[in-house]
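A reminder from the course coordinator: this example appears on the midterm review sheet, so study it carefully.

Given structure:
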């Protein structure tokens, strides 16, 4: 709470967790949030000694008020969230040796009405088993190798069809309504009963710029959780996936076992 801070003071905090949230009531002065994830000791040795980038994503609540959020990188400030921002995630990356922090600065107001500057954050990267989101190549079709890796490592693998596609221009997202014929894996109950008898349904998101259109056929949807929502990575037609997987089986290049029928 800013009520316990001196006007103009800067309180220092460290964020060590891979994901979490912060809520600042009655913002006063500023908070400097040092991003210090606990990287595994082997992370610097991955890929021939090249340290992986760490990516953070910040998503403000719909009631974010009373402060502005800046990214502080090597002493330089960059505005991430103005006061009353759109509830969209902002992502940025850095190398482990770089010094980065979030600088949350209260904005002056003539009254003392209740304001809350609150947001959720996620850290992403190969060391966590999560890709960075949103990716520049999010709209590019996956190649065979990427499809085979997606079925082994994704947060969800769902066989099903597209029921609908709706677009959210404000959030710049497309929401794909999916009817599942088989749930191969889901780390959280994203798809639940609610469609035709025995057909779980759920939503998968993708950037609006990808231009997703509804179409017939059965697909294998794979992807990742991002702030509790399902985001698409690879979605081959199921018959194409069968061909790719069976070919990899013959050459013993499939990275994991997967039920194909």
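Designed residues:
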């Amino acid at each position: 709470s800013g009520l316990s801070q001196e006007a103009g003071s800067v309180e220092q905090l460290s964020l060590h967790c891979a994901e979490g949230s912060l809520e600042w009531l009655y913002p006063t002065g500023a908070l400097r949030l040092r991003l210090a994830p606990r990287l595994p000791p082997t992370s610097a040795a991955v890929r021939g000694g090249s340290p992986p980038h760490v990516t953070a994503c910040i998503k403000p609540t719909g009631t974010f008020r009373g402060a502005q959020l800046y990214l502080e990188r090597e002493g330089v400030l960059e505005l991430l969230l103005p006061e009353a921002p759109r509830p969209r995630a902002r992502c940025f990356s850095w190398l482990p040796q770089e010094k980065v922090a979030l600088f949350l600065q209260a904005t002056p107001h003539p009254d003392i009405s209740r304001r809350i500057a609150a947001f959720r954050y996620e850290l992403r990267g190969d060391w966590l088993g999560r890709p960075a989101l949103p990716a520049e190549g999010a709209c590019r079709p996956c190649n065979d190798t990427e499809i085979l890796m997606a079925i082994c490592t994704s947060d969800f693998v769902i066989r099903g069809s597209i029921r609908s596609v709706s677009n959210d221009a404000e959030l710049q997202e497309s929401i794909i309504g999916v009817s599942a014929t088989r749930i191969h894996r889901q780390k959280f109950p994203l798809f639940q009963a609610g469609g035709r008898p025995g057909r779980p349904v759920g939503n998968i998101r993708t950037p609006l710029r990808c231009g997703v259109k509804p179409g017939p056929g059965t697909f294998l949807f794979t992807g990742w959780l991002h702030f509790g929502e399902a985001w698409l990575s690879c979605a081959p037609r199921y018959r194409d996936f069968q061909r790719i997987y069976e070919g990899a089986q013959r050459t013993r290049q499939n990275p994991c076992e997967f039920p194909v029928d």
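Residues 10-125 form a domain with the Jelly Rolls fold (CATH 2.60.120). The chain has three helices and 15 strands.
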